Amino acid sequence: MGKVAAQIKVMPQSPEVDLDALQERLEQSLPEGAKINGFERDDVAFGLVALLPTVVVPDEAGGTEAVEEAFTEVEGVESVEVGDVGRL
Asked: Quick one: pLDDT at residue 63?
C-alpha cells in the first residue's frame, strides 16, 4: 500500500495565536501512521497567517480524514481545509 501527501490549510482562531506553538500542537495531534513533511505559512489578511503543513498518510480508506479531525480538535484552530493531494 502506498502513501498520500496532502497540503492542509489550518486557519488559526485569530492573529494573536502563537503559530510556533500551534505548529507544535498540530505535530503532537497526528494520528498513528501520519507524519508532517514540512510547514509553509500563508499571509491571509489583516495579520492573519495560515499554516500549511504537508501531511503524509498511508493510502487507505479515509485518506486524510483522521488528520483533519485531529487538527480540528487542536486548541487555537478555527478551520481545516485540504488543498493539494497526491500519491508518493
From this structure: 81
At 26 the three-state DSSP class reads helix
| Dist CA 32 CA 7 (whole Å) | 18
Compute the distance between CA of residue 39 and CA of residue 71 in angstroms, rounded to an integer: 14
Set of cell numbers at residue 20: 510556533
Q: Model-level pTM greater than 0.85? A: yes
Q: How far apart are the C-alpha atoms of 79 and 13, rounded to whole Å?
A: 8
In this structure, what DSSP letter does residue 32 have? T
What residues does each domain of the chain span?
A: 3-87
- DSSP H/E element including 72: helix 65-72
Q: 3-87: CATH homologous superfamily?
A: Ribosomal protein S6/Translation elongation factor EF1B (3.30.70.60)
